[in-house]
Specification:
Keywords: DNA-binding, Transcription, Transcription regulation
Domain HTH arsR-type: 1-95
CATH topology: Arc Repressor Mutant, subunit A
Largest sheet: 3 strands, antiparallel
Structural class: mainly alpha
Protein name: Transcriptional regulator
Strand order of the largest sheet: 1-3-2
CATH architecture: Orthogonal Bundle
Distance between the termini: 15 Å
Order of helices and strands: HHEHHEEHH
CATH class: Mainly Alpha
Strand content: 5-15%
Shape: elongated
Organism: Acetobacter persici
Number of helices: 6
Pfam families: HTH_20 (PF12840)
Radius of gyration: 16 Å
């Protein structure tokens, strides 16, 4: 990930509703949620959710898949991984022991490493 891609991704997350949507979908990995369920859980109108989902999808943070009449949204774990790696790429000035707590916290968030790659 380069600086421009990171800025696009971070700007998509810099709005409170979009950040809420993203965090909700992170909690529902790997199954994702239909757009209507996202709207219901966040108590927001469907058209409002649609605009935010489109922004997050354009930034590469979400993927969508049609299931019959529903569109199910999921977090793009590769994009999230790239963003996290970009943010910590030059971490700790060559002292890996300082990064150990950060790496441990990030590792603990994903109980199934196969779904986090």
């Amino acid at each position: 990930m380069d600086t421009e891609a990171a800025l696009l991704t971070l700007s998509a997350l810099s709005q409170s509703t979009r950040l809420e949507i993203f965090r909700l979908l992170v909690r529902h990995e790997p199954d994702g949620l239909p757009a209507g369920e996202i709207a219901r859980q966040l108590a927001l109108p469907q058209n409002t959710i649609s605009v935010h989902l489109a922004t997050l999808t354009r930034a590469g943070l979400l993927t969508s898949q049609r299931h019959s009449r529903q569109i199910v949204y999921r977090v793009s774990l590769p994009c999230l991984r790239e963003l996290m790696l970009f943010l910590v790429k030059d971490c700790c000035a060559g002292s890996p022991d300082l990064c150990t707590p950060l790496v441990a916290d990030l590792s603990a968030c994903c109980s199934n490493p196969e779904t986090c790659s």
